[in-house]
Amino acid sequence: MAEKLEVKELDQVVVRFSGDSGDGMQLAGNIFSTVSATVGNGISTFPDYPADIRAPQGSLTGVSGFQVHIGAGRVYTPGDKCDVLVAMNAAALKTQYRFAKPQATIIIDTDSFGPKDLEKAKFATDDYLGEMGIDPDRVVACPMTQMVKTCLADSGMDNKSMLKCRNMFALGIVCWLFNRDLSFVEAFLREKFDKKPLIAESNVKVVNAGFDYAANTHQSVPATYRIDSRHKVPGRYMDITGNKATAYGLIAAAERAGLKLFLGSYPITPATDILHELAKHKSCGVITVQCEDEISGCASAIGASFAGALAATSTSGPGICLKSEAMNLAVIDELPLVIVDVQRGGPSTGLPTKSEQTDLLQVLFGRNGESPMPVIAATSPTNCFDAAYAAAKIALEHLTPVVLLTDAFVANGSGAWRLPDIAQLPEIHPHYAPAEQKGHYTPYRRDPESGVRYWAVPGQEGFEHILGGLEKDGDTGAISTDPENHDKMCRLRAMKVFKIPVPDVEVQGDADDAELLIVGFGGTFGHLYSAMEELRAMGNKVALAHFSYINPLPRNTDEVLMRYKKVVVAEQNLGQFAAYLRMKVDNFVPYQFNQVKGQPFVVAELVKAFSKIIKN
User: Fold this and answer.
1) Where are the alpha helices (DSSP H) in 433-473?
2) What's the pLDDT band for 420 if we cut at 50, 70, 90?
3) What's the predicted TM-score (pTM) here?
4) Residue range 372-397: average pLDDT?
5) Reduced to 3 states, what is the DSSP secondary structure of residue 536?
6) Terminal Cα-to-Cα distance of the chain (whole angstroms)
7) pLDDT surpassing 70 at residue 1
8) CA-to-CA distance for 389 and 428, rounded, in angstroms?
C-alpha cells in the first residue's frame, strides 16, 4: 500500500507541536527543525511556552507550543497559521486550534482525551471535535500513550519515564508525513542523551514506532509531502537559536580581537541561554561568572573590561533597570562593554516568556545625565551572530558600552545558519594607547578624528591611570568639577558615538516609486518583509526600510524617510521608535502600527492595515 500513496512536492509548510509543558514539545519541534535545516531547508521557529513554572497537568494555562515554518527557499517568519497541528492533550487542542488553517491536519493522542482531560480543558461535551467544528476526516487520531507503553514494555523503564517518550511518537508521525530520514533524528537523540543510553535508545525505538505506525495505516491522509531545498549556498549549516548565535558572535569577536571573553550575568528569562552556552566554551578562552544579582553582573564585566578583556553582560528589561547605574559607569569611564538585552513583555515582571520591543527608549535614555550609548538591534535568530559581532567591534574600536537588542521571539526562535569562516569576518582593532604615549599617558587623550580615547590595560609600565564614576579633566584625567570641562566632556562623549560609522539603511522592494514605505527595527524584519512582498504581489508599490542601527542612526535616514509620501512605522510597543525618529528627523510625521501582545506580528493583519493606509 505504501507505494500507492502519492508524494507531493511543497514549497513550504508550517507545523505546530503542542502539549503540556512537560510533554517535550520544544524538544520534538527542535529536532524536526534541526533535521529540516540539515537537509537544506529554510526554517523559522517560534517556541511559545507558558510563564508558569509548572502549571497543573492538563490545564489550559500550561500548554506549551513550538511552531516551525519550513521552506524550499529562505523563510522569514514562523508562519501565521499551521498546516499540521500536533495536540498531545485536550487542553492543547482547545487552545492551539486557533493557530491552525481551516484545512490543517490535526494529530492527537486519543488517550489524553478522557472525561477528566475534557473537563480540565473546559469542554462541555465528549464530542470535542464537533464542539470545535473540526472535520474528523482531517484528524489523525492515535492512541499514542498506549502504543508507547506497548513499545517500551520490555525496556525496564517505569511508567513515568515511558510517558516522557510520547513526544517522539508524535515526531515519528510528522517525520513520515514529510518524508524525513529518521537517521538524522536517531543521531540527534543519541548525541543528546549520550550519557543516558537507555533513554536514547528508548526514544529512538519510539520515534521509529510512530513512523511505522503512520506508514502502515496511512492515517487517512491523501498524500505525504516533500520539501526540497533550492538556491542553497554551499557550506555547513546548523539550526541555531538567537541566544546561541549571540554567544557565538561574542566568541568570534574575542577570537578576532585576540582577547579573552568575559560574561558577567545573572539568570533571567529569556536571556539565560547565553550564559549557559558561553559556559560550555572555556576551551575558547571564555570566562563566565553567574553573579548574585544584575548589578554585580554588569559591574564584574566592567572590571573585566578595565583589565583588558572583551566584556559582556546579558539580561532582559528588568535587568537593564538594575544595571543602569553600572552601565553609566562604563559610559563615563569609556570602557568597551556589550550589554545584551533580550526584551520580554513588561512592565515589572510582566510576561517573562513573551516578546516585545518595549525597551528601546530605556536603553537609549534610561540613565541619569547625558549618557550616550550605541544601540544595535538584531533582525533574526541567525542575524544575532552578526549583530553581536558588530556590537563587540564597535565597543572595542570606539571604547564605549554598546547595547545589543534582541527579543524573546528572536532569541528563542531558530533558523538555518551557515557557519562562517572566521578569517573572513571584519577585522577588529581595539583602540590601544600607542607606545609613544608611555610615560605621559592620560586616560582621556583622544584620537582627533574619531574622538575615541586610547585604551591602556593595567600593568603596563608608563601607562598608570585611574578611572571612576566622578567626572575627570579631559587633559589630565584628574577629578574635575569645572563647569566648562564637564560641558566639554559631555559633548565629546556624545560626538564620539555620533561619529561611529554604520551602514546606510537599505530600502527593499519598490525603492524608487513606493506608495508606502514600511519602517521597522529589530526582530520584526521577517514579518514586515513578508507583508511587503504580499502587498507587492497584490499590485501595490511598497518598500521596506528596516533598521539594525538605532544609535547612531544611518547617515541616510533623513533622506530615506522624507522621500515617500506615506510612511508607516510598525513596532511591538506603543510607538517608541516612531517617537525617536520624530525627534531625530525634522517634519517626519509617520503613520503607526503598534501592538503589545507578547506575540509576533501576524502577516495577514499587517497586510490588512497597510492596505488601508495605501487606499486612504
Assistant:
1) none
2) very high
3) 0.90
4) 98
5) helix
6) 57
7) no
8) 10
What is the rounded CA–CA span in Å between residue 45 and residue 186? 21
Look-up of cell digits 532582559 = 316
Residue with cell 471535535: 129
Residue type, 335: L
Q: What's the length of the chain?
A: 616
Q: Is 16 exposed, middle or buried (0-12, 13-18, 19+ CB in 10 A)?
A: buried
- What DSSP string describes 468-514? -SS-B-TTT--B---HHHHHHHHHHHHHHHHT---PPPPEEESTTT-
Which of 49-58, 91-100, 241-250, 507-516 is predicted with the least confidence, judged by mean pLDDT?
A: 49-58
Q: Which residue has the cell 551572530?
A: 385
- Order across the sheet with 542-547: list the strands: 507-509, 542-547, 516-521, 567-571, 591-594
In 78-218, DSSP assigns E strands to 82-87, 100-109, 139-142
- Alpha carbon distances (Å) from 540 to 43, 145, 520, 607, 612: 27, 51, 19, 11, 12
- Angle ∠(397,317,414) on CA atoms, nearest 5: 75
How far is residue 223 from each of residues 124, 432, 524, 597, measured CA to CA in Å? 34, 64, 34, 37
Q: What is the DSSP letter of 452?
A: P
Question: Looking at residue 221, what is its pLDDT?
Answer: 61
Nearest CA-CA partner of 577 in 566, 587, 588: 588
- Tell me how far apart the alpha carbons of residues 518 and 564 are, in angstroms, rounded to a whole number: 10
Return the bridge partners of 549, or none: 376
The pLDDT of residue 218: 62
Distances (CA, A) of 295 to 11, 264, 291, 300, 321: 48, 10, 9, 9, 9
Q: HSE-up of 125 (CA within 13 Å, CB side)?
A: 7
* CA dist list (Å): 78 to 141, 239, 258, 600: 25, 14, 37, 9
The predicted pLDDT at position 267 comes to 97
Whether the Cβ atoms of residue 225 and residue 363 lie closer than 8 Å to each other: no
pLDDT tier for residue 222 given thresholds of 50, 70 and 90: low
Is it the case that residue 128 has pLDDT exceeding 50?
Answer: yes
Instruction: Show the cell assigned to 114.
Output: 478522557
Query: Cell for 14?
Result: 508550517
Decide: 35 and 184 in contact? Cβ < 8 Å: yes
Nearest by Cα to 375 from 562, 271, 500: 500
Query: Is the pLDDT confidence value at 518 over 50?
Result: yes
